[in-house]
Amino acid sequence: MGPGLLSCEVPLAERYDLALVDLDGVAYRGRKPIPHAAEGLSDARLAGMDVVFVTNNASREPESVAHQLTELEIPCSPRDVMTAAQAAATLLAERLDPGSRVLVVGGPGLRTAVGAVGLVVVDSAEELPAAVVQGYSADVGWRQLAEAAYAVEAGAWFVASNLDRTLPTERGFAPGNGALVSAVQTATGVEPVSAGKPEPTLYQLAARRRGASNPLVVGDRLDTDLAGARAAGWAGLHVLTGVSTARDAVLARPAERPSYLGADLRSLLVPHVAPHEDAGWWVCGGAAARVVGARLELDERSGSSPGERRDEVDRVRAACAAAWDASDHGETLDPDSVGALGPRAG
């Protein structure tokens, strides 16, 4: 049986001591704030929950991220930010000798992180680097990718900060680091080691920094944020403000299933009730769902859960429970029977 949704009889901010919060698609989209993010995080902190922002974006310094969040009315210091650049640098330092050369393809955040662990940043394959590390930067172009390919072909260890295929911006979804890494991978035939989500390294470093015993991962992407939560063995909250939709959650593979679902970061402040089975239906609040003949069926019922926008999310929870149960029992679910579900803020 695959993992299902969890119940939490108290607000999540009271159950979990640390929120590991993704940035793009959760706190902001590009340079614009996600609605209700500031109030949700402020109230969670007031409830006693610590917060660290954990991002696969390796292009920026923690100071830059903290400044942007603070401008968006989310108070933040650099120590509240953990980037994939820092995780990648940690991986490199664990394997390479101090002073080893590393060809860095990426932005200032990655260059700073690599230098901070005692490694020497270089820009050319002719300098015979022991490793290549690649992270997202809008300035990465053909010349940098070519140098990376030359070095990898010569035997340098290939490390990627993350393998996100897309990057959410205010204009839509742009190519992410994974799309750029694939150019080097295609040219060399070498698959990189990834330091970012969905690998658990980034989360584990952040939790260790804070001394947390019961962290909660909060993200918008099933294939990175929530898969990373599963890989770390921790609970994950999927907020419907970014890349992965409610429909994606219903169709999620077991390794990417969230533990909780919420419309936005205000969902840190309420209890969560897991669906239960009743006469063949999976019921949550005022919604129910079942799979019959490979098709998902939804039913609206009385007695919906209290709280802002909970009715719509209850429909998603019920649909997830029905779909996941059917999948775990070897039943087929027609994806075309799963329409658009629930809120998608922003």
Supply database-style keywords.
346 residues, alpha/beta, Rossmann fold, 3 domains, 11 helices, 33% helix, HAD-IIA family hydrolase, HAD-SF_hydro_IIA, HAD-SF_hydro_IA
How would you sum up this structure, described in words?
It is built from eleven helices and 19 strands. It is α/β, with parallel strands linked by helices. The chain folds into three domains: 12-82 and 198-269, HAD superfamily/HAD-like (Rossmann fold, 3-Layer(aba) Sandwich); 85-194, 3-Layer(aba) Sandwich (Rossmann fold), CATH 3.40.50; 276-337, no CATH class. The strands form five sheets. A six-stranded parallel beta sheet has the order 5-4-1-13-14-15, with helices on both faces. It is globular and about 70 Å long. The relative contact order is 0.15.
> At CATH's second level, what is the architecture of the largest domain?
3-Layer(aba) Sandwich
**Mean model confidence by pLDDT:** 93
Basic shape: globular
Uncertain spans, ≥5 residues at pLDDT below 50?
303-310
Rg, alpha carbons: 21 Å
Task: Tell me the span between the first and last alpha carbons.
Answer: 35 Å
The total number of structural domains is: 3
Largest sheet geometry: 6 strands, parallel
**CATH class wording of the largest domain:** Alpha Beta
SSE run: HEEEHEHEHEHEEHEEEHEHEHEHEEEEEH
CATH topology of the largest domain: Rossmann fold
Helix run count: 11
Number of strands: 19
Q: What is the assigned CATH homologous superfamily of the largest domain?
A: HAD superfamily/HAD-like
Strand order of the largest sheet: 5-4-1-13-14-15
Structural class: alpha/beta
Instruction: Note the beta-strand portion.
Output: 15-25%
Residues in helices, as a percent range: 25-40%
